[in-house]
Write a structure and sequence with these properties.
alpha/beta; 10 helices; two-stranded antiparallel ribbon; ten-stranded mixed beta sheet; Rossmann fold; 33% helix
Length: 293
Amino acid sequence: MDRRAFLKLVGLSSVFAEGAFRGLLAVEQPTVAVAEGKEYGRTTRNAVNLLGGMRRFVKPGDVVVIKPNMGWDRTPAQGANTHPLVVRALAEEAIAAGAKRVKVFDRTCNDERRCYVQSGMSEALKGLRAMELKFIENERFRKVTINGKALREWELYGEALSADVFINVPVAKHHGLTRLTLGLKNVMGVMGGNRGGTHRHIEEALADINGVVKSHLTVIDATRILTDHGPQGGDLKDVKVLNTVIASTDIVAADAYATTLFGLKPADIAVTVAAHRRGLGEMNLNRVRILRG
């Protein structure tokens, strides 16, 4: 065998080896952590620790965005917003892991000042160093080329895109349009413009957006879930207390598991199905490792 043929063979072997390695990574089983307990800060930490702890995600000097649902002028008990104690625990863990700055924000549906106060977020996050609870600033939205199935481009919040770590923290609740709103839909809170314009093909639009805005960690607040009249709610009769927090690096798997808390299957939620078809995560719970703590 001459030198050229030998080098070609070695090169092909390297390509095959690299391909096999990537294939192994691709089939790594997704994991969903499920923690239960009435002390919501501890329960949140337990869920993240089942995945390896916050230091797996946050490195010293990182800028971290924690994106809860704070869209509604509702109290924590009403279940329309992410529970503030879940958010505080994540912020504390990120700071302890060495985050340079932790930013919390949402583009609200009701008046932002009332939402931030009524949700309990303003009070819960007081006194944390390296912590910013921010109102959305319209000038920070920037047009992003998406080239998706439903959206060609959209205005997205710059601070979400530039963060070293993006932690997506939805509350699990009923939604009149999409049946449920979970991690995939919570990313609408970093969208500018007329979000109502996405409603006609919302499952594909949300898959488009989640293909651009990557959630490094999804933590679903199911401490109490809103079972009807979402997303705004208001009636405590629609709230079911579960004392549960779900965490995963796979946003689709996290949403799929949370769906079962409502007596539904992942395939019942068009948003989950669309994201799975796009390769954004696993919706078949038989292929997901469930860790409990």
